[in-house]
Amino acid sequence: MNKIAVSFFWFRRDLRLEDNIGLFYALESKYPVIPLFVFDDSILDSLPKNDARVGFIHESLAGINQELKAIGSSFLIKKGATAAVWNSLIQEYNIQGVFFNKDYEPYAMKRDQEICELLVNENIVPFSYKDQVIFEEKEITKADGLPYTIYTPFKNKWLEKYNSVGTVREYLTADKFSSFYKSAFAFPSLNEIGFVENSIKVKPYTLDSISKYQEIRDFPAVDGTSYLSPHLRFGTISVRKMVNWAAKTNAVFLSELIWREFFMQILFNFPRELTHNFKSAYDGIKWRNNEEDFKRWCSGTTGYPMVDAGMRQLNETGYMHNRVRMVVASFLCKHLLIQWQWGEAYFAEKLLDYEMASNVGNWQWAAGTGCDAAPYFRVFNPEIQLKKFDEKGIYIRKWIPEFNLGYGQPMVEHAFARDRAIATYKAGILK
């Protein structure tokens, strides 16, 4: 029996129909396009069954599926080992091409290489595209071709290249939707893929406050953040759209988007930094790594209101204000002398906007061990940070309801912890 010739578009971190480069080119191919998403067991098996991010992915896919149904198509959703899924699809369909957007995280790169080899061995052409960044891999380099490891020159080169192009093209696909394969695939429930609902939800993004971003971004009591980061992480919005908008609206906000790409190219070029200090000179530091101290940090019971409010916000909502992230990270690494890898792993478990490159990069920045990091002798004082950025205590009272009843004593005195941290770092830095 002859099978109809089709193309596949493999959704991953690009959960949208509009301005999706790989999808744009898939729909331009001469074959009907089957939209595919694979719930990858290699990723899911390590997650709790109520992981809010899996719920958000499922919800986003369901929304796209409704759009597809309106044009007589539907999502093909699979669950399992990715290679096994593709082997099955190769047997079931006459696949002419597989289109997807690149991912730059180590596991994803290894997975994609394996799947591309599998496809090529079956005489199926894979097509990959840059979509989640403006400039990828080695597009922004120094004159000698080496990657930047300092943010400011990277940013300057990035802006120079962006401005030479003008507004980055956005890939409009709505007029190509007739090219989707006509189907009515069954859409699985969250329970059917082995997960359950979580009360923690990803918030819709908003751009209402971005014009004043630099004025309000450091004050956690002000609800002035965009909530954009989970949407960029999972691709429910195009980075091109956001960068083009930010370039016309707010330079400081644009700088944050460039930081995201800086850390991505750092991870791509220096994958060792995922688990090791970027600066190997810091490998000699004798960390305390006290498990009881770590538990108090995780639960938000350190006795430092700014630290505790941040950790409670994270545990209850999956979000944490960026200024507060710096304070809690510094506290863990400097005050408690606990390795940044411990905090990075906890954030990876809890953050709705968890992005591997940014999470690792920012944790190493806070610990002083990363590229372009804060110097080791810079130790945030949580009490001064509280006075500067939450003077009226609005933020801390929101997350620490018992605050007015007489809050507990700090688990470690700041001046003592600061001196201990500086001495420990100084003694541990390899010459």
CATH homologous superfamily descriptor of the largest domain: DNA Cyclobutane Dipyrimidine Photolyase, subunit A, domain 3
| Average pLDDT, all residues | 94
Write the CATH fold name of the largest domain.
DNA Cyclobutane Dipyrimidine Photolyase, subunit A, domain 3
Just name the CATH architecture of the largest domain: Orthogonal Bundle
Order of helices and strands: EHEHHEHEHEHHHHHHHHHHHHH
Strand content: 5-15%
Tell me the total number of β-strands. Answer: 5
Domain Photolyase/cryptochrome alpha/beta: 5-134
GO molecular function, one term: deoxyribodipyrimidine photo-lyase activity
Pfam families: DNA_photolyase, FAD_binding_7
Binding site for FAD: 213, 225-229, 253, 256-263
Question: How would you summarize what this structure contains?
Answer:
Keywords: Chromophore, FAD, Flavoprotein, Lyase. The protein has 431 residues and is an alpha/beta fold. The chain has helices spanning 21-28, 41-44, 52-70, 82-92, 106-121, 151-165, 213-216, 229-234, 239-249, 251-269, 291-299, 305-317, 322-335, 340-350, 356-367, 382-389, 394-399, 414-428; strands spanning 5-11, 33-40, 76-80, 94-101, 125-129.
Structural summary, described in words:
The chain is α/β, with parallel strands linked by helices. The chain has three domains: 132 residues, HUPs (Rossmann fold); 100 residues, Serine Threonine Protein Phosphatase 5, Tetratricopeptide repeat (Alpha Horseshoe); 156 residues, DNA Cyclobutane Dipyrimidine Photolyase, subunit A, domain 3 (Orthogonal Bundle). It is built from 18 helices and five strands. The chain has a five-stranded parallel β-sheet with strand order 3-2-1-4-5, with helices on both faces. β4, α5 and β5 form a beta-alpha-beta unit. α14 packs antiparallel against α15. The longest helix has 19 residues. It is globular and about 75 Å long.
